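Task 17 of the worksheet. Students: predict the tertiary structure of the chain below and write it out as structure tokens. Keep your answer in the requested format; marks are given for formatting as well as content.
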Amino acid sequence: MGALLEHYDYDLPTHLIAQRPLARRDQARMLLLHRGTGQLAHQSFSDLPRSLPGNSLLVLNNTRVPPRRLTARLPTGVRIEALLVAEEEPGRWRAMVKKARRVKAGMEVPFADGHLTARALERTEEGQWLLQFSEPDTFRERLAIHGLAPLPPYIRRDIHNGYDPRADREAYQTCYAKVEGAIAAPTAGFHFTPSLMDALGAAGIEVAELTLHVGPGTFARITVADPAQHAMQSEWYEIPPRTAAAVAAAREAGRPVIAAGTTTVRALESWAAAGAPAGHSGWAGLFICPPYAFQVVDGLITNFHLPRSTLLMLVSAFHGRERLLAAYREAIAHRYRFFSFGDCMAILPHPA
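Model answer:
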């Protein structure tokens, strides 16, 4: 048995949880670590083009997050919130519902002040609800207008007091988001800007894209004492032929492959486990925790993650749990901003 769940814990002052992104995203702070060592340096994300090895291949996750969070007041007066996870058939959605026990089968639920109405069909074994919406022809148009960005619960918004959802819909996206389908953003990508992408190109950094639609599995709580026994829910991913070729060429030439975000790591390592075909799509059910032998990724750009999370364990597998938690203590001591809208770290190959 490796480290227990309790060994992936740390104390974070709540005032360090970032509530909004910086006005200039590439000015986020970046804790630079050399992989497998305790060496670190404090930088700005705008330093990334100079910090990456000059012959790197940088891989990005281009998933886009639609506004699939909806609120409603039940006939009983109770307010609920639903996050639409996947469409089973036209108008029928699986949804994660807060206060799910207050919903009853057959109940009509008026979401978004009645602009979208759903009948609660049944609760699944996973604790989600099947919802049948009444407006199949205009559903997506209405959702685009009235849906909210699926912000994590630690980001606070008063949605009942003059809240304008449009700001968060764009704030909770990467600048290269293209393929719609995730229920959460690949937040390591929040720090990239068009001008920074230009600077990376000028520095000779090759960039490739893939898609992994972040689903509930990434954030599901681990409930077993031994994390190695955790069953990861699968998420859909695609490695385009161009990206597969770029990664294969970089590996052949000994050039470092840098993943922007843990979701990019899971897609690349799942692809490698499938035999690294020349273009591939499928379901990533790979759970990465220590010990794990990485087959593709040499460097990782990542935000700071919640205690006891699958994401913290993935980064621990990449850098070492004790070294990583020491870096977290350093970030807390220097008042870094944490989680989705917060600062980041770059774990890069040790310089030759």
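Marker's comment: The first strand starts at residue 29 and ends at 34. Residues 69-147 form a domain with the Thrombin, subunit H fold (CATH 2.40.10.240).
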